[in-house]
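Study this pair:
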Amino acid sequence: MPGSRTGRPPVQRGARRPVPPRTPRENPVARLTTRARRAWDRPLTAYYLILGGSLLITVLGLVMVYSASQITALQMSLGGSYFFRKQLLAAALGGVLLYAASRMPVKLHRALAYPILAGAVFLMALVQVPGIGVAVNGNQNWISVGGPFQLQPSEFGKLALVLWGADLLARKQDKRLLTQWKHMLVPLVPVAFMLLGLIMLGGDMGTAIILTAILFGLLWLAGAPTRLFIGVLAVAALIGTVLIKTNSNRLERFGCIGATEMGSDGSCWQAVHGIYALASGGLFGSGLGASVEKWGQLPEAHTDFIFAVTGEELGLAGTLSVLALFAALGYAGIRVAGRTEDPFVRYAAGGVTTWITAQAVINIGAVLGLLPIAGVPLPLFSYGGSALLPTMFAIGLLIAFARDEPAARAALAMRHPRFGRKRGTGGPVSDRSPRRWNTMRRRAPARSSGER
C-alpha cells in the first residue's frame, strides 16, 4: 500500500491524553504542622494530655525519688527504699483519689467545696496546738498521724481554695453580681487571707506564695478590673515585703539568686550545689543512680531539689522532658477552662492549672537560680505524700472536666468496646443484631458495583 514500506496498513494511533499539570509538592514541615494542628484540635486531646502527662510525671517522679533518696535514707539508718516505699503508697492512694474525682459529677465536686474548706481550716488551726503540730526545718506546718507518717494540712488548703472559690464565683456569676467589686472580693479575699495567715503562723512562705497565685488566678478568670487586680496585688506585695525583711533566712534566700559560689560563711550552699548538679549532667546525664551531689552535698535532694538530681542523672534531655510534660499539662488545663460553658468548671480548671503551673515554675526557677528558694515541692514529682494526694485529686478534677466537654462526650459515646457485642439500643436480646467482633481498622465506605 502506498505510504507503507512493508505493505501493511498504517497503525492508527489515538490522540495523546493531555498530561495533567503537576501539583507542587507540599512542604514536609508544613504537612507536619498541619497534622499536629489537627491532632491538637481533636476533642479528646486535652483528656489524653492530662491523663498521660500526669501519669508520666508521677512514674518518672517515683523513679527519681528512689534514686535521689537512697543515700539520705542510709544516712538516717533506714532502708535504701524507705522513702520510695512511702511515696509509692501515697501514689497508690492518690491514684484512688484521682479515679474517684474523675468519675464524680460536677454537682458532687461543688458539694464537696465547703466540707473540704472547713476540714482544711480546722487542720491548719490544729497545727498550732502544742503537742499536735510538728516543726520540720523550722516550719511548724505538720501534724503527726502516727508512726513515720505526717500530714501537711496547708497542701489541702490549696485544693480547698480552688473548689470553694470556684463554687463561690460561679454562684455569683449566675446572679450577675461579679460586676460589683465588693461581690468579687468578699468573701473570697478575706477567706484567702485567713488561709494565708494560718500558713504564715507556721512560717511556710513558699506555700503562701502558691496560695496567693491561686487567688490571683481566680480573680483574673472572674474578670477583675485592672485597678482592683493591681490593688490586691499591691497589698499582697506589701505584706510579703514586710515578712521577708523581718526574717533573716528569707533575706538570705533572695541573696542567693544567681549565685554560683558559696559565701565564706557557707551561705547559698544548697543553691550552688543545685547548679553544680545541673552543670555536671551534660546532654544525657551521668546515668540513673550515678549522681554525685546526692551523697550529702545537696540538701533535700529527693524533695525540693529533685529536679537538680534529675538534671545530673538524666541530663538536659531528662529535664527538657519534664518541662515538656508540665507544659502539656498546663496547655490542656487552659484548653479545658477556655472551652467550657460552665462557670464552675472554668474557675476550677483555671485554679488547678494556676496551682500546678505556678508551683512548678517556682520550684524549677529556684533550682536554676532564677528565683529564691521557696521550699515547695515539684508537683507530682517530688517526695511528699501530703503534696501528692491533693494534687492527684486536682488532676482527677481536670480529667472529669475534660471528659465533660460536649465534643469529648460525643467522641467517647462513639467509641465501642474492642471485643464482644456492640452496644445495643435496647430491646430483648433475641431481637438484637448478632455478635460481631470489632477491629482496630476503620471500615471502608460502601462503593457502587461499577466502581473500581
